[in-house]
Write a structure and sequence with these properties.
Order of helices and strands: HHHHHHHHHHHHHHH
Distance between the termini: 29 Å
Radius of gyration: 22 Å
Structural class: mainly alpha
Number of helices: 15
Largest sheet: none
Oligomer: single chain
Helix content: over 70%
Strand content: under 5%
Length: 455
C-alpha cells in the first residue's frame, strides 16, 4: 500500500473529518426517514407527526447529502495527503463546510415546517438553491486551483472529480430553470429539462464516487498505473458520454423529437460495453480481491462491483423503450435507484471512509470493532438483495400485469402490498447493518475530536 505524505504535526483538527462526521449523520437520518416513508406507504396515517409528504423529501435530501459530504471530504483529504498537492485554501474549505451545513439545516427545517416550493428531489424553497450553488462554485475554485499546480499528467480520478464538480454545478443550475416562465409555463419543455437535468445530475455525482473508487484501488494496491492506463481513460470518456446523453431514456414518454430517443437508446446500449468490461475484470481480479478481503475497505469495493453488475443489467433493461413504457415511474425505477444509491455509491463511500478514518485519526479499529463492521457488511449486502428483488417484483406487477388487467389504483396497491411490506421490514435490517458499519467509525472520530490538540 502506498505510504501517505508526511509532514509536521497538525495543530488543528482536519476539516475533512467534519465533512465525514456530518456525512454519517446524514446517512443515518436519511435511512431512518426512508424506513418511515416505506411504512407510511403501506400503512396510511402511520406516524402523522412527520407525514409521507415530509418524510420522503427528508429521506432523499439527507441521502444525497451523505453522498456529497463523504465524497467531498474524501477529495479534500486525498489531494494534500496522497496526491502531493497543497490545498489552495483551507479557509475556502471551511466556508464550503459551513455553507453546506447551514443550508442543510435550513432545508430540514423547511421540510419539517411544511415549507416547500421546489421541484422533484429539490422540493425545498428555491431560494435555498443560491447557497448550494455558491458552495459548489467555492469547491470547484478550490479544487481546480489545487490540481492545476500538478504539472504531471493527471490520473483518471483527478479528471473524474473535476468532471463531477463541473457537471453537478451545470446540471443543478438546469434543475432551477423552472423558476423562469419560459420553462415553467410550457409543460413539455419543463418536464424535459427537469428529467434531463436530474438524470445528468446523478451522472455527475457518480463521477465523484467512481473516481473515489479508482483512487482507493490505486492506493491499496500500490499500483499507480491503474489510474493512468489508456483503458481507464476510455472508460472515463464512455462514462462522460453517458453522463451527457444517457438522460434521454428518462423522457421516452414525453412528446419530443424521435432523434432524441434514438440517441438516448443508442447511448444507453453502450453500457453493454461497460457491463462486459466489469464482468471481464471481475472474473480476472476475483482471486486477488478475495485474497485482500480481510482489508475492510476492499470488501466494500468488491461488493460495489457486484452491485454495479446487477444494477447495470437492470438499467439496460429499463432503457429498452418497449419495457420502459411499462416500468417508468414504478417500483422498478425505485429498485434501480436504491441499487445505485445503497449497493454502489454507499458501498464505495463507506470503503472511502474506512480508508480515511484510521489514517486521519491515527487510530485503528479494535478486533471487536472490525468484527462488528464485518457483520454489518454482510447484513447490509445480503438483506439489500431481498430489498432490491422485492422492489423489482412490485414494479413488475404494477407496471405490466396489473395495468394489463386494468385494475384501479387501490387494487394495484393491494396486489403489490406484500412486496412493499418486505421492503419496509428489510429496510430496518439494512439500517441495523449500517449502524454496525458506521458506529465504530463514529467512535474513532469522537475520540479524535475530543483529544487535545498536539503541541
Amino acid at each position: 500500500m502506498m505510504e501517505p505524505l508526511t509532514g509536521k504535526v497538525k495543530m488543528k483538527k482536519e476539516i475533512s473529518i467534519y465533512f465525514i462526521l456530518f456525512a454519517f449523520l446524514a446517512l443515518l437520518g436519511g435511512a431512518l426517514f426512508g424506513i418511515l416513508a416505506a411504512f407510511q406507504f403501506i400503512i396510511p396515517g402511520f406516524f402523522d407527526w412527520v407525514p409521507f409528504i415530509k418524510s420522503r423529501p427528508l429521506h432523499v435530501s439527507l441521502v444525497v447529502s451523505w453522498i456529497f459530504l463523504s465524497a467531498t471530504g474524501g477529495v479534500y483529504w486525498y489531494l494534500p495527503r496522497y496526491c502531493n498537492l497543497t490545498l489552495y485554501s483551507r479557509g475556502l474549505q471551511k466556508v464550503h463546510l459551513w455553507i453546506f451545513i447551514l443550508t442543510g439545516f435550513a432545508v430540514i427545517i423547511s421540510y419539517l415546517a411544511g415549507k416547500f416550493g421546489g421541484k422533484e428531489y429539490w422540493e425545498f424553497p428555491p431560494v435555498l438553491a443560491i447557497p448550494i450553488i455558491l458552495s459548489w462554485i467555492i469547491f470547484g475554485y478550490n479544487y481546480f486551483r489545487t490540481v492545476f499546480r500538478n504539472t504531471e499528467p493527471w490520473p483518471v480520478y483527478l479528471w473524474m472529480w473535476g468532471t463531477g464538480i463541473l457537471f453537478f454545478l451545470f446540471t443543478y443550475l438546469e434543475t432551477n430553470l423552472w423558476v423562469f416562465s419560459y420553462f415553467r409555463d410550457h409543460l413539455v419543455r419543463d418536464i424535459t429539462v427537469q428529467w434531463k437535468a436530474n438524470g445528468s445530475l446523478v451522472g455527475s455525482w457518480n463521477m465523484l464516487v467512481y473516481g473515489t473508487a479508482i483512487f482507493i484501488m490505486d492506493k491499496i494496491s500500490g499500483d499507480s498505473s491503474i489510474s493512468k492506463t489508456r483503458l481507464a481513460f476510455i472508460m472515463y470518456f464512455l462514462g462522460l458520454i453517458n453522463l451527457i446523453f444517457n438522460w434521454a431514456h428518462h423522457i421516452y414518454i414525453v412528446p419530443n423529437a424521435m432523434w432524441v430517443r434514438y440517441i438516448a437508446y443508442g447511448i444507453s446500449m453502450t453500457e453493454l460495453i461497460i457491463l462486459g468490461k466489469i464482468i471481464w475484470n471481475w472474473k480476472r481480479d476475483l482471486k486477488k480481491s478475495l485474497q485482500d478481503f480481510n482489508i475492510l475497505a476492499v470488501r466494500f469495493i468488491v461488493a460495489s462491483d457486484v452491485w454495479i453488475l446487477l444494477n447495470l443489467i437492470l438499467a439496460i433493461m429499463l432503457s429498452i423503450p418497449a419495457i420502459n413504457i411499462f416500468t417508468h415511474g414504478t417500483h422498478l425505477t425505485v429498485a434501480h435507484s436504491m441499487g445505485s444509491t445503497i449497493g454502489i455509491n454507499t458501498m464505495i463511500l463507506l470503503a472511502s471512509c474506512l480508508f480515511i478514518i484510521p489514517d486521519l485519526t491515527k487510530r485503528s479499529f479494535s478486533i471487536a470493532q472490525a468484527k462488528l463492521i464485518s457483520i454489518g457488511f454482510w447484513v447490509m449486502n445480503c438483506i439489500l438483495l431481498f430489498f432490491w428483488l422485492a422492489l423489482i417484483i412490485a414494479g413488475y406487477n404494477k407496471g405490466y400485469l396489473v395495468i394489463e388487467d386494468k385494475l384501479n389504483f387501490q387494487e394495484i396497491m393491494l396486489k403489490i402490498r406484500p412486496y412493499l411490506t418486505v421492503v419496509a421490514f428489510t429496510g430496518i435490517v439494512i439500517f441495523t447493518g449500517i449502524l454496525m458499519v458506521v458506529g465504530p467509525q463514529l467512535k474513532l472520530i469522537k475520540d479524535y475530536l475530543l483529544e487535545k490538540n498536539q503541541k
